[in-house]
Design a protein that fits this description.
Number of domains: 2
Oligomer: single chain
Structural class: mainly alpha
């Protein structure tokens, strides 16, 4: 049992480090959309972090199930909110890679801005769920956790559209 707890703690550390590396580079990539400095390594770091998050996330879930059992672990609404978040994050990542980037290269920014907003919301709310240990095991129902996630997405969309509007006005002045 002690070895499982140690492995679980290491998986959580791995997950946290991957999140930090990816999150910082997501921020830099987001800023580059509005004229910030571009980094050739950001995309590679983000892709690596994504794979590290998937692998460490599966390790955390697998070890968590081993530690407390299927029924207890899978009855947690926070786990299912994370599963929903990860599914939407995957969809936004695929949308960015296969649709938004080609459109951006053609000078059309709107899909990229919206997809990046959703992706950023997933990173932000994922961080919140990761540190909000008091929400585990039914402290809030699944619907309440999803409402917070939707509000985060809406907030990121509003913020992005505001920045895009300000960026457009600044470009028009130049």
């Amino acid at each position: 049992m002690l070895i499982l707890r140690i492995l679980w703690a290491l998986a959580v550390l791995w997950h946290t480090m991957a999140f930090a590396a990816g999150g910082v580079n997501v921020w830099f990539a987001y800023r580059a959309m509005f004229g910030g400095p571009r980094s050739a390594t950001s995309s590679r770091v983000i892709q690596s972090a994504e794979w590290q998050l998937w692998a460490s996330g599966f390790a955390i879930v697998g070890l968590g199930i081993q530690l407390v059992g299927w029924d207890h672990y899978l009855a947690n609404p926070k786990l299912w909110a994370k599963a929903l978040l990860v599914t939407i994050w995957l969809a936004s990542t695929l949308l960015i890679r296969y649709r938004a980037i080609p459109q951006l290269r053609q000078g059309r920014r709107q899909l990229m801005l919206r997809a990046c907003s959703v992706s950023a919301a997933c990173w932000i709310y994922g961080a919140f769920l990761g540190v909000a240990k008091t929400l585990a095991n039914g402290a809030l129902p699944f619907a309440a956790l999803c409402t917070g996630f939707v509000m985060t997405i809406v907030g990121c969309l509003i913020l992005t559209l505001h920045h895009e509007d300000a960026h457009g006005r600044a470009a028009a002045v130049d």
